[in-house]
TrEMBL record:
Keywords: Cell membrane, Membrane, Transmembrane, Transmembrane helix, Transport. Residues 1-33 are annotated as: Disordered. It is a multi-pass membrane protein. It is found in: Cell membrane. This is Sugar ABC transporter permease. Belongs to the binding-protein-dependent transport system permease family. Residues 98-311 form the ABC transmembrane type-1 domain. Its main location: membrane. PANTHER family: ABC TRANSPORTER PERMEASE PROTEIN (PTHR30193), INNER MEMBRANE ABC TRANSPORTER PERMEASE PROTEIN YCJO (PTHR30193:SF37).
Length: 330
């Protein structure tokens, strides 16, 4: 009797022709990997939908509220279009918050980078108790702003320890109520921020410097390069990617800054330490102008995204230039 087999039902006879399915022709290993990826996706789908949906829904709803004249409670909502955005452009306090943000970002980032790189280079040297120094440098990072704020308010008070120390060493003419006057309040907040977050910069720079080839440094030393020359010409170019990443994080963090200025100065005196985050809160909660606060928050979102995109493009350009340079050397 003739053995009749139906094409495609026997694994020993692979299907051919136009009617054969692509996954039947695919190797078993590839089908297995594809099945595994498809099987895992439904498990993350609920979390993906909830997180993404919640975020984008809130952004969309906030955008709608920014077009209203509304206090957030009343059932009466009056549509006013782009008036809240036009109001922001003519609001001197809003422009003041942007100025404070720029000063805060530039000073804190530059000082943190200088201190972070200097400490990372020093602790890469063979010094005793380096592990203890790392812990001491990183301790401020784990302290919550709610804990630090009362301490710094006492330190910078008119009769606080800082002024007492200045008077004790004969510099009493410098003593002043640091947080109670517009000319010095922002500087006090910057000092607090630097003390709080320099540990993060130090850890990242320390890890980046660990990836620098020691042979390059030793060759530079044999050529007569000093420590400063090695840091400037070898270490800093090698950790440029880390510097850009920290600049991005610092810029976005400064744009949404709220806790430190609110807890220490509450935006005062005379709006001298007002930032976008504190100004949005002031408009939404104490003043009840939710529409204007929503417009300010959308502006904050656009600024943060624009800053992130700008720094990312800059980082990509530097990476491509570095890759071309390496190819040219080869």
């Amino acid at each position: 009797m003739t053995d009749i087999r139906v094409r495609g039902t026997d694994a020993s006879v692979p299907p051919t022709g136009a009617g054969a399915r692509s996954d039947d022709r695919a190797p078993a290993g590839r089908r297995r990997r594809s099945t595994t990826r498809t099987f895992g996706f439904p498990w993350i789908l609920p979390a993906l939908v909830v997180s993404s949906g919640l975020v984008y829904f809130c952004i969309g709803y906030n955008s709608w509220v920014s077009l209203l004249d509304w206090n957030g409670i009343s059932p009466i909502q009056r549509f006013i279009g782009l008036d809240n955005y036009l109001r922001a452009l003519s609001d001197p306090i809003f422009w003041g918050t942007l100025q404070h943000t720029l000063i805060y970002f530039v000073v804190t980032f530059v000082v943190q980078s200088v201190l972070g790189i200097a400490l990372a280079v020093l602790l890469h040297s063979r010094i005793r108790l380096s592990g203890l120094f790392k812990v001491i440098i990183f301790i401020p990072v784990v302290l919550a702003p709610a804990i630090m704020a009362p301490v710094f308010r006492i330190l910078f008070a008119g009769d606080g320890p800082i002024n007492e120390f200045l008077r004790a060493v004969g510099l009493g003419f410098i003593a002043q109520p640091w947080l109670a006057q517009s000319s010095t309040a922002l500087g006090a907040l910057i000092i607090m921020q630097i003390w709080n977050t320099t540990g993060i910069s130090f850890i990242l720079y320390y890890a980046a410097i660990s990836q620098v080839e020691t042979d390059v440094i030793e060759a530079a030393r044999l050529d007569g390069a000093g420590n400063i020359r090695i840091v400037w010409s070898i270490i800093i170019p090698s950790i440029r990617g880390t510097i850009v990443a920290l600049a991005m994080l610092s810029a976005i963090g400064t744009l949404k800054l709220f806790d430190i200025p609110y807890l220490v100065t509450a935006g005062g005196p005379n709006f001298s330490t007002e930032f976008l985050g504190t100004y949005i809160y002031r408009q939404a909660v104490p003043l009840g102008d939710v529409g204007y606060a929503s417009a300010l928050s959308i502006i904050l979102l656009v600024l943060a995204l624009g800053m992130a995109i700008l720094l990312s493009l800059r980082s990509n350009e530097e990476r491509q230039a570095k890759t071309k340079t390496k190819k040219g050397i080869r």
